[in-house]
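Re-run requested by the PI after the first attempt was lost when the workstation crashed. Everything re-entered from the original request form. Ligand of interest: magnesium ion.
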Amino acid sequence: MRGITMNAIWRNGPAPAATPAGLVRLSGVHKRFGNGQQRVHALHDISFELAAGEIVALFGASGDGKSTLLNIVGLLETPSEGSVVIGNLLASKMSEQARVELRCDMIGYVFQSCNLVPVLTAHENVLLPLMLRARPGPADMAAKCALATELLGQLGLSKQAGHYPKRLDPSQSQRVAIARALVTRPRLVIADEPGARLNARAARLMMDLFVRCQRDDGTAFLISTRDQRQLVRVDRTLQLCAGRLRAPCAASARTTQRLPR
Ligand SMILES: Nc1ncnc2c1ncn2[C@@H]1O[C@H](COP(=O)(O)OP(=O)(O)OP(=O)(O)O)[C@@H](O)[C@H]1O
Ligand SMILES: [Mg+2]
């Protein structure tokens, strides 16, 4: 994997068994916050796998632990117990520096709040993750700019590319955040309620784009939602209830269900 030394990764733990098609594997993950009476046991004994190129929805009500679980899979939080394997790397035992490198190298994020930078245009916001990596050369930069423009266009935002966030409505801001998560062409996208601010048409554009990335780049997606209507066109649904995963739901509704128009 680019930019990461195996020594940095393995110094805190043994190498786990290889998972050929598996991109993410969680085993026995618990997450607790706080102490004493303030203690919250947010996740209980979570185990699941996400295959490379798979689109999985994580469904649950408010407070069920969706963001906590996404943050753990996305290496933004560490589990209190249990292991997180990304590729063949035991991420839950890595040094912080190695986790940062792994995040930059292979994960794109759509956060629950859009977190756009107010002094950058929509197009510049999309390009931001690339600026945080090694500075691209001029030819590479031109290609990246074109990709950012294309992603905004595919999300129906061609006219808003030069707008600053204060001129964008919530749906437009959310779609800029979605384009920003995809611009690095990550192997894994963690999307926390990405459809929450979108109407049916915008949600359809988002899913069209996700499916295109899956097909063309083999991108895997873990997408949280509280809205059952958004459990369409995914390969599989995981259901969280009070921090516990329920038995897996039936595989793909993708061929039989359609997004509302
Ligand atoms: N940093 C934290 N400190 C203390 N408790 C936390 C923290 N983060 C989450 N929690 C608690 O963990 C539980 C799960 O929260 P989480 O935000 O993961 O739920 P969620 O399913 O994403 O909810 P929502 O749909 O409202 O975003 C909640 O009880 C929440 O209060
Ligand atoms: Mg949440």
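Saved to the shared folder this time. Strands lie at 22-33, 40-51, 55-59, 81-86, 89-90, 107-110, 188-192, 220-225, 236-241, 244-245.
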